[in-house]
Amino acid sequence: MTTDSLSNLMDERRTFAPESGFAAAANVDAGWYAAADADREGFWAAQARRLSWASEWSNVLDWSDAPVAKWFVGGKLNVAYNCVDRHVEAGHGDRVAIQWEGESGDARAITYADLRREVSKTANALASLGLRAGDRVAIQLPMIPEAIFAMLACARLGLVHSVVFGGFSPTALRSRVDDAQARLLITSDGQFRRGKAAPMKANTDEAVADCASIEHVLVVRRTGSTVEWTEGRDLWWHDLVDGQSDTHEPEAFDAEHPLFILYTSGTTGNPKGILHTSGGYLTQVAYTHHAVFDLKPESDVYWCTADIGWVTGHSYIVYGPLANGATQVVYEGTPDSPHQGRHFEIIQKYGVTIYYTAPTLIRTFMKWGDEIPAGYDLSSLRLLGSVGEPINPEAWIWYRKHIGGDRCPIVDTWWQTETGAIMISPLPGVTSTKPGSAQRPLPGIGARVVDDAGVEVGPGGGGYLVLDKPWPSMLRGIWGDEERFRETYWSRFADEGFYFAGDGAKYDADGDIWLLGRVDDVMNVSGHRISTTEVESALVSHPSVAEAAVVGAADPTTGQGIVAFVILRGGQDASVVGVLRDHVAKEIGPIAKPRQVLVVPELPKTRSGKIMRRLLRDIAENRAVGDTTTLADSSVMALISSGLNTAS
Ligand code: WTA
Known about the structure:
- Keywords: Acetylation, ATP-binding, Ligase, Magnesium, Metal-binding, Nucleotide-binding.
- It is an enzyme of class 6 (ligase).
- By secondary structure, this protein is α/β, with parallel strands linked by helices.
- 5'-O-[(S)-ethoxy(hydroxy)phosphoryl]adenosine is lined by residues 264, 310-312, 387-390, 412-417, 438, 501-503, 515, 518, 524, 529.
């Protein structure tokens, strides 16, 4: 974040007390903090009882093998049964689980009884392929109901899913499939994007062409476009799934049985396969969805606008809401298709009461204009959520006023792929909210802001955000790389035993937490985590590039934008810039396409050869260049700047 927006954050002084009617009916009250502090394990045991267990655990937490936790030791449950069947058994089979809205306006209402039939058929289909508990299944699908059926069918069979965002390139998909050694890939012929059918299977074909572990590719027909077909490997979803029996007996698995792997960017090397397990994960997503969103399953219509390719889609579209028996909207398309009022039209159409989205979209709505939401009836809304990056106070206030009608509480939820569920957030009806602050760890969660030495800073002080107590939905490791797991999260404050989140944070005078962005080389672009090294390796894989350095520069809409500095090989000139931007999009995916590629003669390096990204960020953000005394050659910055001036 820029210094400007930081000081703006810290100068924010407005607070919004909970409205009394909301507080009186809220799912939680202030007493939850004290109750959880008094008996943490007892508190989490009570949260676990939100779920149906086939057999009870013997102890709540085993931390003897830290940092690998075991929660609800010896307990057994089936995650899909908890998200589907038990609601039907409780008499809610006719309740709509998923109100699906296609981009072009085709709609499908799926009740919990329908969901049980669809998930059972899908589970029978996957079992017929010989897949067994513990096997990995890769899923790259658009936001269609089959994506949710597939995830839940995996959970039902104890298969470990690895969902890969639809925008990732074949190369990115291949490395994830290989790393997890997936036996099956589930994909679709194509996907609708801004009114057009874009290919999907063509990409997945390229990705798995030489993945030895893949035995079958299961293909959902969505766009009806022509696809290449590999006999013996490829199977149509409608051929395999539709004819299966619509009943399936769920088996109970151990609380620590792996549920999914989700890849996320780290500071170095390949993306990390974050591993989540069953009982603790489901407990915390169900609890947080109940407490933070104040869900009333009988009357609420909930909508989380994330994609299932990200953790928010896993925890707050699939597992949390369905475990709680929610009715939710799932939307296939982009927010501006076919027009910029699409989200507001959907809120009005379905009477959405809870809306959970990302700051980048809120800022986009601000840019499109206040008159667009004003043209719709948004009076059904009663709670708003934000996730993915720090929300600047201007966007928060706009969200409250123009979407929330100045009445809806806003929950700014801080968490990560690794934490699995929300960790820091206001509680609606309890907390007086402050625009831009995620405020306090939830009841049962321990978080603090510490200095370099691991000592907690005082009110007004800043430093690193750490999590000081294990939590049920914590990651259980990085797939296939235990050393990297310890090194990445647990070595920075090893003596204290803290989990290092990688985020900077600050306390205000009241002790509320303000998140200040990443402190490592991970960028946050439209709420998506992308590492600088990933983009740098994509750039140097192009024959024109000799060397590359990438920084995240403040961007008014996307939070950060990717700015790349490249040194070209001899004989190349700046006309190659467009080619390089496309090359990165092809290597990683369109979300990683640099906003700018600047051709430079040199890169600023320390004597030990480390690139000083801080100085490059100064250039990218049009600031005076900071302290250059540690540069090996202090004239480099002048050389870079003068070259850029003549180029522009
Ligand atoms: C950032 C997304 C400030 C943070 C759920 C974190 C936030 C990273 C917030 C995780 C928030 C997420 N305020 N920053 N409310 N929510 N972040 O793994 O830097 O995609 O470390 O998980 O997003 O991103 P991830």
